[in-house]
Amino acid sequence: MTTLKETIRSSWKPCTVDAILFDFGGVLAEEGFRNGLVAIAKGNGLEPSGFARTGFELVFDVGYVLGRSDEKAFWAALRERTHIKDPDSILRDKILSHFRLRPWMLDLVKKLKQEGMRLAILSDQTNWLDELNARYSFFRWFDHVFNSYHLGKSKKDISVFEDVLAHMGVQAGQALFVDDHESHIDRAKGVGLHTIWYVDRQSFELELASFCPHLMGDSR
Fold first, then answer.
1. Rg of the Cα trace of the chain?
2. Distance of alpha carbon 176 from alpha carbon 192, whole angstroms
């Protein structure tokens, strides 16, 4: 016979949503692409913000972030536009070394996973995301990993949110999306997702507590 205590435990949900989707760079990890581009610019005596902006434009323009071209094509385009001289191997190491997983965020993810929450990564990334997982083995904490490089579609396209929700079998109103880009947040809201625009740890934890009250203070 099932006891009252067991019944309560089986019906308990850690959060008011059924699934949480996390961006990678800028949320689960430091924004390695931007920070790496800044480091490359400084190493070549170039103005960092303009160089980083060019890098973000080109990674989409050449199709690398959507899996339509490869890393070599991206570096060739960036080298042609900015006249940097470093070889591809040096440039890629600069980028990958700046994707630093946030330990406190991984601790939070593990706790949510252990409590039975459905978790996913939704990232506009290249095959670098797979390489970073090979180094740090973080995919195992997520039920799904949605990467623009494999999807052929990015978060600039509002339909990607509908596709991901359909694949997960989750209603928009029962899912939370966390991202550090306001434009992605706006598009996610457009399909009915709950959202947190990640700015810093303190504000993120306060907003997350409105969805998962029991976590208040746990991730510190």
1. 19
2. 10
Owner of token pair 């939070």: 108
Q: Where are the alpha helices (DSSP H) in the chain?
A: 4-11, 32-43, 48-61, 71-82, 88-97, 103-114, 128-136, 148-151, 159-168, 182-190, 201-209
Cβ-contact 218, 114 below 8 angstroms: no
Q: Residue 178: in which H helix or E strand, if any?
A: strand 175-179
Mean pLDDT per segment of 10 residues, for the chain of length 220 residues?
Answer: 42 85 98 96 96 97 97 97 95 96 97 95 98 97 98 97 97 98 98 98 96 70
The structure tokens listed for 141 are: 């904490």
Q: What are phi and psi of 177, to 5 degrees?
A: -120, 130
Q: What is the pTM of this model?
A: 0.91
Stated length of the chain: 220
Angle at which helix 71-82 crosses helix 88-97, to 10 degrees, equals 100
Burial of 157 (C-beta count, 10 Å sphere; 0-12/13-18/19+): middle
Strand order in the sheet with 194-197: 144-147, 118-123, 19-22, 175-179, 194-197
